[in-house]
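Please fill in the sequence for the structure shown.

STRUCTURE ENCODING:
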């Protein structure tokens, strides 16, 4: 917003705002909130994607210790597909996900009330 602009330390942001029309927010404030950071800092600002090493499906247990188990990629694909908001449905979506996850370790982490889920995860992937 306009009043905060003098406190922005990056000169590139202030220069961008000086030559770009703001939108007028509620209350009449000038706001520059819909710009691509790469426009200011260059495309190198975006990190390169890291390879997918594992997929962890979370589940909650009412009692007992947290535990982790290796599961087949197809089971992980099914569980991931159930949670996606996607136009692709059914077996085709599961097959696409299974193909994407091929060669990736898949785990189901059941989180118990004991609070040691992080330990179980670290032990499995270390």
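FILLED IN BY: designer on duty
SEQUENCE:
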């Amino acid at each position: 917003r306009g009043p905060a602009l003098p406190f922005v330390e990056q000169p590139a942001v202030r220069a961008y705002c000086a030559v770009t029309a703001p939108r007028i927010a509620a209350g009449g404030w000038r706001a520059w909130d819909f710009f691509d950071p790469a426009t200011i800092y260059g495309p190198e600002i975006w990190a390169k994607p890291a390879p997918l090493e594992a997929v962890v499906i979370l589940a909650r247990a009412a009692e007992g210790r947290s535990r982790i188990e290796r599961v087949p990629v197809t089971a992980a694909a099914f569980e991931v597909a159930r949670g996606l908001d996607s136009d692709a449905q059914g077996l085709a979506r599961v097959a696409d996900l299974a193909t994407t996850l091929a060669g990736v370790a898949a785990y189901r982490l059941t989180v118990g009330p004991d609070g040691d889920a992080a330990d179980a995860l670290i032990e499995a992937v270390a």
